Amino acid sequence: MVRVEGLTKIYREGRPGEVRAVDGVSFEARPGEVFGLLGPNGAGKTTTLRMLSTVLRPSGGTILVDGVDAAARPDEVRRRIGFLSGATGVYDRLTPREQARYYAELHGLAGEELERRVAETLRVLRAEEFADRPCGTLSSGQKQKASLARTVVHDPPVLVLDEPTANLDVLVARSVTEFIRQAKGAGRTVLLSTHDMGEAERLCDRLAVVHRGRVRAMGTVPEVLAAAGGAPDLEAAFFALVGEEGGA
Amino acid sequence: MNGRRVLLVLQKEVREALRDRRTLFVTLVLPILLYPALMIGLGTVTARQQGKLRDAMQTLALEGPVPAALREALEKTKGLRLSAEKDPAAALKAGRIHLVVRAAPDFPEVLAAGGTARLELLHDSANEPSAEARRKALEVVAAWRDGILKERLAGRGIDPAFILPVDVPPASATDVASATRRGAHVFGRLLSFMLVVMVVTGAFTPAVDAVAGEKERGTMETLLISPATRLEIVLGKFLSVFAVSVATALGNLASMGVTFGQFASSLGVRGKVDFTLDAGTAATIFVILLPLAALFSALALALSTLARSTKEAQTYLTPLMLLAMPLSMVAVVPNIDLGFGLAAVPVAGAVLLFRDLMLAQGEPALLAKVIPMVPVVLGATALAAGLAVRWAVWMFGREEVLFRDAGEAFSWKDLRASRREGSVPGPGGAFLLPAAALAATFLVGQAVLRPEWALSPWTLVGQQALLLAAVAAGISLAGLDPGATLGLRSFPPAALAGAVLLGCGSAVATPWLVRVTGLEPDAGGPMAGFLESLLRGHSLPVLLLLTAALPALAEETLFRGWVLRGLRSEMSGVAAILLSSVIFGVFHMEPERIAFTAALGAGLGFLALRTGSLWPGVVAHALHNGVTVGAAKVWMEAPETATAVRVFGGQAPIAGIAGLAAAGAGLLLVHLSTRSAPGARDSLGAPPPSG
């Protein structure tokens, strides 16, 4: 469960060239739900997710992950998060198993539990076959599985996925969508940012349309379409919501 | 902090580094293999080519009445051949022959009359065979001349010993330096220098890989979202870079040590040169190498953090190399002694200590002089390393640096912005402008100034004008607010009294401090000569304008305006004052005086921040320079003025202490007079919120 209230991030605050990258964003995502942040590049999606995963300090607002305040206990929040973005790479000179183990150990797993989690994660992702080859020698699909293994090796209740299918070819992207459905089925809370309207429609239970750091509409896909005055699809709804600014 | 996670990061980095076979080979294995090949190969080739030159045939031509006996001796010499060129000098210039032996027109007559006849050996020093021909011919000529001399002496019944009252044997026969010391003198310098280069290169690749590489591969963000804190990550990465740097330096030390040893013994045909490292020396060098490697590892890591890609990181690391080179080259520059002052300079102190340790091997008397430097060098290097690690940690904690795409990317457009109210330069600009001004002063000096102008007062005027122009250009290009950047504001009148006390007090205290610390500048140096000619050449008012008023204005504008306020925009007041005063000290390029200049700079910095104004600093600075120069002028014109001699020769402790007290009282007065003042006064606390 993730709850965000009035989240704000201002760059160069109080200085010339001030940018309000995220401006009072609020939403709530529940376990077993895929919640989407839909918006064009530069809308503030990545900044929102980075604040959520505690690597950026918010200028204002609160974040609760599983009831834990991100500002007060960032370490506890990180423990509960699995993060993946489309730009995430792998360590070319480590094997998928070593990479998964590295992250599992950073998360404090040790001994038998460590070995069990690593083995199970690789098995579930069907990555055992290439688990002991250096990542640099793997195909892009295999690399993506190595990344996914690293994301969930500590069994996080919340997944933060920042444009996870960007830069991936169709087949690999499909394995990521499959992974998202599995995670949802396993009762994880999935936060997903995307600029792909089709992907948002297919995957998200609920979504927030974000533009210039602000939420313009929020709800299930039919609710967002209705809020946009009965738009036929999300793309039309998006332009209806952001109006004249859309091209900017 | 969790030590286990630091260790995890370290393990992973080292594992990756060890698996990067290609880099490992190029940075570690290849150089180690290359030294013996290069050194011994080069040595052999050089020796062989020199041998070839000796054995080869060179051509010479005779000009003028060269005596038959000499001609015959030259003809018979192995490796020389006579040629019958018509215009020998032209043939020599054209490279057809290698030497011309030219006898003066009256040569036989002068010789016969018992006089000194002139014989010229025309040669081309830029042509190796020609130089060799001269060497061969000179031997022949000398032998022939000695024969004539003997005949002349015998003719008059004089013992040859009569004309050689004193015999000084050749240097090689009377050298007290042991073979080890001679070896250390040549190879120890080189090794000291190379060690630093290796520590730097050893830190480069892993540092680039550890942060910029992770950013580039897109693994950095996920690592930051893991439970490892930034401190743990950066320490783990730092330790891995440090380990590789130390390993590289040690591998190279061993390889170079052995190679130099081999090479030295191959040189010393008569067992004259020897290069070895005893266990104690090697261990001491190793201990000093540790903070040195830590220093460069942390610097490289911080710069790598600043970069968005590995390519950018390499660009940032080049200046680090350029900085390390001159500091480590002091080892090969002749006539630099390691004193306590230099020992405290990071890198330079360490390389000089390496050099001196190697020179003092097996010589207890020399060793006793070097050993006291070890703790100083160790302390200074460790301090610098500690600061560098802190900087790396700080850099790694800055989100706008770690996520450069998310925050503000550097853009040249920022430099052309229109003027913005209240805006001041950033820390980057604070470093850049003095460096650029220094470079410009040097380049302009090289390109424009003729040697005879070097001592002209116009050089001083030009330098100060250049500083002012640099600040003006910086402010206008970056669209900054001149008032805020320089502190063009009013100030409480009581602060002016404080400035007067500070300026006069420091002028009186400095000569005494210089004397007490033993950091006296070189009296025979070019600066001293310049000052003396200035003092002699100008009346007091002109002197005060040239050396007090003008420099005070220019230097305060640059250092207490641009630099200090630039640093203050992102630093606590105390840190900004200290850093700006170090820059101020370094800028003066007088190693002995850095500490004093920096201390004065710190006082002036305090003045500038507390009053919020440039002007009290200008007054204090002008007074400091003016009193110093004025006293020197008085002293020079009336050497019998005992008081001036004692005070400004630093021989009056009471005056020195009184000066210090006055300077301190001045600072206190400034502090008190600005304590309750409104607005612009600076409490010197934390950096201002977001700039």
Tags for this model:
heterodimer, A: 248 residues, alpha/beta, Rossmann fold, four-stranded antiparallel sheet, B: 691 residues, mainly alpha, D-Maltodextrin-Binding Protein, domain 2, 3 domains, four-stranded mixed sheet
Structure description:
The complex is a heterodimer of chains A (248) and B (691). In chain A, the strands form two sheets. Chain A has a six-stranded mixed β-sheet with strand order 6-7-8-3-9-10, with helices on both faces. In chain A, strands 2-1-4-5 form a four-stranded antiparallel β-sheet. The longest helix of chain A has 16 residues, at 170-185. With 248 residues, chain A is α/β, with parallel strands linked by helices. Chain A has helices at residues 45-52, 74-79, 96-106, 111-124, 140-152, 170-185, 197-203, 221-227, 234-242, and strands at residues 2-11, 19-29, 34-38, 60-65, 68-69, 81-85, 158-162, 189-194, 206-211, 214-219. Chain A folds into two domains: 2-80 and 158-247, Rossmann fold (3-Layer(aba) Sandwich), CATH 3.40.50; 86-155, no CATH class. Chain B has 691 residues and is mainly α. Chain B folds into three domains: 52-160, D-Maltodextrin-Binding Protein, domain 2 (3-Layer(aba) Sandwich), CATH 3.40.190; 186-402, no CATH class; 425-675, no CATH class. Chain B is 70% helix and 3% strand. Chain B is built from 27 helices and four strands. In chain B, α1 packs across α9 and α24 packs parallel to α27. The longest helix of chain B is centred in the N-terminal third of the chain and has 39 residues, at 179-217. Chain B is globular. The model of chain B is unreliable at 406-419 (pLDDT under 50).
Spatial gap, N to C terminus of chain B: 29 Å
Q: How many domains would you count in the coordinates of chain B?
A: 3
What portion of residues of chain B belong to β-strands? under 5%
Number of E strands of chain A: 10
Give the CA-based shape of chain B.
Answer: globular
Oligomer: heterodimer
Number of strands of chain B: 4
Low-confidence stretches of chain B: 406-419
